[in-house]
Automatic annotation (TrEMBL), chain A:
InterPro entries: SBP (IPR006059). It comes from Streptomyces fagopyri. One of its GO terms (molecular function) is maltose binding. CDD domains: PBP2_TMBP. Residues 1-20 form the signal peptide. Pfam families: SBP_bac_1 (PF01547). This is Extracellular solute-binding protein. The lineage of its organism: Bacteria, Bacillati, Actinomycetota, Actinomycetes, Kitasatosporales.
UniProtKB/TrEMBL annotation, chain B:
GO terms for biological process: transmembrane transport. Residues 11-26 have a biased composition (Basic residues). Keywords: Membrane, Transmembrane, Transmembrane helix, Transport. This is ABC transporter permease subunit.
């Protein structure tokens, strides 16, 4: 009886191991078939996240109209970044030639390049980047080589209530001063709004927000090589303390420890926040139906300790799969993506931040999207997140320790010391 | 035995059916029957070896290999899969992380290695607390459902609803309720950020898990209760046993086999818990279970994740084995005592 039940137990338990064994795949190899297919043309597949902004029909129609023999098929993934990532990983590990052009989050680019999954855009695959924002090109570059084509950029903005304050604060002190008398401290459920919130749940968004605070004071997460840890400094401590003290003193509500983009947006939309840090996509939603703050808010560059702060760069790049059979067509598709027509459509239809420098000084566009100059400033002065193939480990090192500091479970100094050690460990492959 | 004997044997035993038949059959196997039995179960065993055995052996083998490293000059990953001995195991068990100059250091906070023992503690903690709550409440529910009263069917159905809802939906449901502005804070008049601070987050998971799986335990106990003959209670009453005494001396020992199965199943399930904390809290605030850690590590390095999953496997297996042994003795003891 005992033996038989134990056998049943083994059967049940083996599920744990099966997960690990099935995750096996050729993550190591750097098999490069880039050259042999470089001239091959034919139909291609464009793999991208779910099209919430409605820009894909234009891209597909316009490309197919001008390239009848190399038609593009669009495969939409989920709208969750981690699900997109695991979908790409699975198809790359299977060396699937059915994925020709893939959308890559800026922070995945280095890992995909190091694993040999995306083709370097050099030699006969070279892409002209002179018209693009330098910051976006940098995000697509790994180890001195361009590996992807910038598709859309993103920078953080300060959203503020124009019915509560006339001008946007440029420094942290001004922001806190503006909150006096107009907000309640520490909660977003009161009759008056709370002061400030960003994205402080323990996830990628916290890495973005913590890095912004750290970079604003002249601190840095990693050195100029984009890899080695430099976060354990007095400047970094001053930066992180802005957020830590925010929770301690109550001008950041404690509910914000559970905020991702959507929750912070919902709170601002419901009139529960006076200031919010978010990406440009929020403008369209906050002006939409059902918003309590429609017409009562404006955007500005993020504040810092003395003058404007630093944004963390977001955005997406497009890579050509190493396993694509039609690389020449795929390269033409990347050039098409960088065209004025596509970038203009992405902005006007989907409010996606373009990567063409000229577009930010186009009077017609500025008339319609008044925040463009601020967004340009945010992107130009923006700081990329660490460019390393070990990014998942690096971001966990940052978010885990920053979270502990925000919760008050760890001092700022201790959090930065741990962060430094954990980034070092992650980039050593530990 | 002759063919005729076999036929006769079958004819005789068939109407009896059930337990007696299987007992009689076990003693009556001849070489021919045994061969047939082996021939019949061999395909199943082969399939099991293929779909259960092979992945286990492969995972254990992989756990002794290196993960791909980075070639600093080209920036590309080099092939891993070299022999690595027990390093993947010491990484987890002793929390030793590699340094850039090839040495080892204690894993700093914020690395998966540093979370190993915490995740083991969290997993065991959830199991002990949730299983205890579920067993106690499940027993109460089962006793309620067992009683004859008006609307019993309604009560049974309503108790079973949580078990019928998929875990992912349950997790989302409780996430909404545990929202800082959600109904739980409104009802309690509190302002807890349930899913974003340490102990409230852990409580939230135990509450949601208890809500979801108590019906399962209740159902198994109920099945056990229905097997207890009414005469036993009547006899106990005549002997002057009060309600508490009847519960501890009749109900509990007789329901113990069913209870043991329920607890073992729940304990194994909770030890492997992944979806509830992953969705409810994302593993933040000290709610990372061993299974969450395994899946997180998979994206970093398959071979080190294999070591972690092997450790988790052995760990759960030992606990499962211990529970089975413990309850087995208890069940046998209880049965003989009850019969006596």
């Amino acid at each position: 009886m005992g033996a038989r039940r134990a056998t049943a137990a083994v059967g049940l338990l083996s599920a744990t191991l099966v997960i690990a064994a099935c995750g096996d795949g050729g993550s190591g190899g750097s098999g490069n078939s880039a050259t042999q297919d470089a001239n091959a043309r034919g139909p291609i597949t464009f793999v991208t996240g779910k099209d919430n902004s409605g820009v894909l029909p234009f891209i597909a129609d316009e490309w197919n109209r001008t390239h009848p023999d190399e038609k593009v098929t669009i495969k939409q993934q989920s709208d969750q970044a981690d699900q997109q990532l695991s979908d790409l990983e699975q198809h790359f590990q299977a060396k699937d030639p059915g994925y020709d052009v893939v959308t890559v989050d800026v922070v995945w680019t280095a890992e995909f390049a190091a694993k040999g999954w995306i083709t370097p855009l050099t030699g006969q695959n070279a892409l002209d980047t002179t018209k693009l924002l330098p910051a976006t090109v940098k995000s697509a570059t790994y180890n001195g080589k361009l590996y992807a084509a910038p598709y859309g950029s993103d920078g953080g903005l300060l959203y503020y209530r124009t019915d509560l304050t006339k001008t946007a604060p440029t420094t942290w002190d001004q922001l806190i001063a503006d909150c006096k008398d107009k907000t309640t401290k520490g909660t977003i459920t009161g009759t008056k709004p709370a002061c400030y919130a960003g994205q402080f749940a323990k996830y990628e968004g916290l890495t973005v927000n913590a890095a912004e605070a750290i970079n604003a004071t002249g601190g840095s997460v990693v050195g100029p090589d984009g890899r080695s840890a430099t976060v354990d400094s007095a400047q970094s401590a001053t930066g992180l303390d802005f957020l830590v003290n925010g929770f301690k003193d109550g001008y950041i509500p404690k509910e914000a420890l559970g905020f991702q983009e959507t929750q912070s947006l919902n709170a601002f939309e419901a009139g529960q926040l006076m200031f919010m840090r978010n990406w440009p996509y929020a403008v369209a939603i906050l002006n939409g139906k059902g918003s309590k703050v429609a017409g009562k808010f404006a955007v500005a560059p993020l504040p810092g300790p003395s003058g404007h702060g630093a944004s963390t760069l977001g955005g997406h790049n497009l890579g050509i799969s190493t396993y694509s059979k039609h690389k020449a067509s795929a390269l033409d598709f990347l050039k098409f993506i960088e065209s004025d027509a596509v970038q203009r459509n992405n902005l006007t239809v989907g409010t996606l931040a373009p990567v063409l420098t000229a577009m930010y000084s186009d009077p017609a566009l500025i008339a319609k999207f008044t925040y463009l100059p601020d967004l340009l400033k945010s992107i130009q002065t923006g700081v990329p997140r660490p460019i390393t193939p070990y990014y998942p480990g690096v971001t966990e090192a940052i978010e885990t320790n920053a979270y502990a500091a925000l919760q008050g479970r760890m001092t700022t100094h201790q959090a930065l010391t741990n962060m430094q050690a954990a980034i070092k460990s992650a980039t050593a492959g530990g | 035995m002759t063919p005729a004997g076999q036929v006769e044997h079958r004819v005789v035993k068939k109407p009896n059916g059930g337990r007696r038949r299987s007992k009689a059959r076990r003693g009556a196997t001849n070489p021919g029957e045994a061969r047939l039995a082996y021939a019949l179960i061999t395909p199943t065993l082969l399939m099991l070896a293929l779909i259960v055995g092979y992945p286990i052996i492969k995972a254990v083998y992989q756990s002794f290999l290196t993960d791909p490293g980075l070639d600093q000059a080209s920036g590309l990953f080099t092939a891993g899969d070299a022999w690595f001995g027990l390093h993947n195991y010491t990484h987890w068990l002793l929390q030793q992380c590699a340094t850039s100059n090839g040495g080892y250091t204690a894993c700093p906070s914020g690395t998966p290695g540093s979370q190993f023992w915490e995740s083991v503690g969290v997993t065991v903690g959830f199991t002990v607390v949730a299983c205890t709550l579920e067993t106690v409440i499940g027993m109460v529910f089962a006793l309620m459902m067992h009683r004859a009263f008006r609307g019993r069917a309604m009560v049974r159905v309503s108790i079973l609803i949580p078990w019928a809802i998929p875990t992912a939906v349950t997790s989302k449901l409780w996430q909404v309720m545990f929202d800082p502005q959600g109904c739980i804070n409104k009802i309690l008049g509190t302002h807890y950020a349930w899913t974003s601070s340490l102990w409230p987050a852990r409580c939230a998971i135990v509450i949601a898990d208890t809500w979801k799986t108590t019906p399962f335990i209740a159902l198994l106990i109920l099945a056990g209760l229905q097997n207890i003959p009414e005469e036993t209670y009547e006899a106990a009453k005549i002997d002057g046993a009060n309600a508490w005494r009847r519960f501890t001396s009749v109900t509990l020992p007789l329901v113990k086999p069913a209870l043991a199965v329920a607890v073992i199943f729940r304990a194994l399930d909770t030890l492997r818990m992944y979806d509830l904390p992953k969705i409810l809290t994302g593993g933040a605030n000290g709610t990372t279970t061993s299974s969450i850690l395994v899946v997180d590590q998979l994206t970093r390095g398959v071979n080190s994740a294999s070591a972690l999953s092997t450790i988790t496997f052995v760990f759960i297996f030992v606990i499962a084995f211990g529970l089975v042994r413990l309850f087995n003795t208890n069940i046998l003891g209880a049965q003989t005592k009850a019969v006596r």
